[in-house]
Fold:
Amino acid sequence: MTQPDPTIKPVRLGMIGLGAATVPVLRVMARSPLIQLVAAADLRPQSLAAFREQFGGNTYERVEDLCADPEVEAVWIATPNQFHCPHAVLAAKAGKHVFVEKPMALSVEEAQQMVDAAEASGVQLMCGRTAATRPPMAALINLVASGQLGKMRAVNAFAYTNWAFRPRMPQEVSLATGGGIVFRQLPHQVDVVRVLGGGMLRSVRAQTGDWFKARAVPGYAAVFLEFEDGTPSLLAYNGYGYFTAWDILPWAGDSPYEQLGTRIRRQLRETGSSPEEGEAKESARFGGAPPSQPAARPPTSSAYQGDVGVIVVSCDLGDIRQSPKGLYVYDDDGRREIEVSNEQADGATDLEEIYGALRLGKPPVHDGRWGLATLEVVMAVMQSARERREIMLQHQCPVRG
Ligand SMILES: NC(=O)c1ccc[n+]([C@@H]2O[C@H](COP(=O)([O-])OP(=O)(O)OC[C@H]3O[C@@H](n4cnc5c(N)ncnc54)[C@H](O)[C@@H]3O)[C@@H](O)[C@H]2O)c1
Structure:
């Protein structure tokens, strides 16, 4: 058994929201020496009971009470999107450092309120857990940043998923509460592209698609991004996919909720609602009721980050894309494969960013201003689609460090 490192002083973290998104992260947190889980808040008693049983610590039904807990040094916000801003402002005003799940908020104005609240209280605000911090995207980012292949000239991302037909709550499929693939999925692609290109996007031209009646929210987006230096990026995301991008990368394993998603699609089309999805969503949450049907199992994890899609980066001296073991690099010598460790499981790099910011004085890449800039792109995608024109960006910031 490895001994704890006495020089590490773990960050005392309180979880706000113990839903489906936190299941993989809690697994990583439980093993991480950088984090100590000391409290949780959720409206659902079953998740709070499961938290007490697994981690000990204080549990609360009200976020206000968690924010008043002196044991809590920082909070991880994973409540539905419409609560990200109010919960982050509450925590910042209580003097807690804040990490918030993507999407940061429902508007640039809300994101600005969060940044202002954190600055006024002198606490760190971070917004992350996107594909940019997971293998093999993190390795792709490091390879491009190393300059080995010269300047990056273009980056294209192509995702086909069944996002619209995974088990969903009403707020996940309503634009007013940050639902649909533009709010929920584009932050992954946009974050990867912004980090790769240095952060400073110039403009957005986009079109969105909303073509499944029972999910009245964008499930498709086609986006053209241009960086300040002229570097282009094309993003395509189809969350209504019958076909998924996993199919063209045969090593990727199953796409999440393949069979259940097919049933939910058919039920929604035929009757306008799905009797299965409420139970399936609950069973995917931390401490949620076990599913009555085995098909409601949560997604399998894979080194291939399918929701971000197939990503191809073109540089002066080569092209890079995902491979079975990590990345393929194509250059003057042909094709070679770079192995990427899958150790950095979902959320691990975010925990390192939190620890770095709070214990080592290391500025996080995914700070509040970065999150605001990524959200600005997401909002511009929707504005561009509505107004059918290019939107110029005003809140972009460079990658720090
Ligand atoms: N980074 C990723 O890859 C990723 C993946 C999935 C979801 N997410 C994000 O995580 C967040 C949650 O998504 P989810 O799928 O876990 O949803 P969910 O509905 O499963 O979980 C939300 C949890 O918040 C709790 N909650 C709701 N209102 C609350 C309140 N006022 N006070 C306290 N608790 C409250 C609910 O009871 C539930 O347990 C969303 O912002 C989503 O965008 C991120």
Observations:
- The pocket of nicotinamide-adenine-dinucleotide is lined by residues 17-21, 41-44, 47, 63, 78-81, 83, 101-102, 129, 169, 184, 285 (CB under 6 Å).
- The CA atoms of residues 268 and 274 lie 6 Å apart.
